[in-house]
Design a protein that fits this description.
Rossmann fold, about 5% strand, globular
Length: about 120
């Protein structure tokens, strides 16, 4: 599998001064190093891997980030059951371990409306 930093479309970012690094989502020390100097961390992880946001939030806090935006781009999920209820439970865990968080609700089906 090709790393994001090695993809041709990302090389233009490097040319503009963007630092592209790789780290495993589960390795908090590596993520902390990767996030050093970052003020805001925005997660765009798939719904099927949302638990990976816990170590990312932990690393964001350890790196000194001031704000964490978890991957929550649908509607409010705090009092729901099933997979969406899991997102609400995750938010509670993120509040425990990470920096302050901002939940962005774009409405249902935005992934499908704005997708290619």
């Amino acid at each position: 599998m090709q790393a994001s930093r090695d993809k041709e479309q990302n090389k233009s970012f490097s040319a503009q001064g963007v630092r592209i690094v790789s780290a495993e989502y589960t390795e908090v020390p590596a993520l902390t190093a990767a996030l050093a100097g970052t003020h805001v961390v925005i997660s765009t992880i798939s719904l099927f891997a949302i638990d990976a946001q816990v170590p990312i939030a932990e690393a964001a806090k350890a790196a000194g980030a001031k704000l964490f935006l978890p991957s929550e781009f649908g509607g409010p999920t705090d009092n729901l059951q099933g997979v969406f209820g899991a997102k609400g439970a995750l938010h509670a865990k993120l509040r425990e371990v990470g920096p302050p968080q901002l939940l962005v609700y774009t409405g249902p089906f935005s992934d499908y409306s704005w997708g290619p």
